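Why do we care about 3D structure at all? Because function follows from shape, and shape follows, mostly, from sequence. That is the central idea of this module. The next example makes it concrete: a single protein chain, its amino acid sequence, and then its structure expressed as tokens.
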Amino acid sequence: MITIKEQNLQKICLIISILGIFSLFFISQKLQPKDLEIEQISKQYLNQEIKVNGSITSIKDKISLTLIELSSGSSKIDVVIYKEDIKEIKKGSNIEVVGILNQYNNQLQINAKKITII
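And the structure:
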């Protein structure tokens, strides 16, 4: 037989569980990278994780990294890929890039974390 104290305890546990599930849902939504078009990228997103799609218009190999120019329409941005992260990419490939937006020599660029050929 359940006493009133046990019923109250069960209700409290149920409420806390539901609040925890909702909290996890909202936190997971905030942790997703911001999905942007290249023309939407601005300094307001500096040091944040973003996701963009575009076509590779140029590839420049450096000693320890590869610099690609990603374009969509008339907008362009440079993407830095470290050698160990290079996949089978070539000029004209359509890719999705997830990375951190930063600034180098007064130009915005993305340090790629993940690249997917689409």
